[in-house]
Amino acid sequence: MKSFIVLALFVAVAIAAPATPDGDAQIVKYESDNIGVEGYSYSVDTSNGISQSENGVVKNPGTEGEALEVRGEYSYPGPDGVVYRVRYIANELGFQPEGDHLPKAV
């Protein structure tokens, strides 16, 4: 389940972020803390202005209600010059994104 959520988030970022014209973006900052026990965190910045950070924690460890909760955000410059930012939570209630450019839930 945890792997699926992380994979889904990477796919969402890859789809949302526009490709660079030259395709030569470089990672300019990468930090990771993943000891694999009860949580993880990472952040990445690239030379084309894309940025992502995320942390995950295990809620209710060792119980039947054990679940991974992931919180993070990513941003990217759009073709219109605006930097789009998405903040999200992913947990047992699903993926819950927020952003000024996204429709608001009613």
From TrEMBL:
Residues 1-16 form the signal peptide. It comes from the Eukaryota. Pfam families: Chitin_bind_4. GO terms for molecular function: structural constituent of chitin-based larval cuticle. InterPro entries: CHIT_BIND_RR_consensus (IPR031311), Cuticle_Struct_Prot (IPR050468), Insect_cuticle (IPR000618). Keywords: Cuticle, Signal. GO terms for cellular component: chitin-based extracellular matrix. This is Flexible cuticle protein 12-like. It comes from Vanessa tameamea.
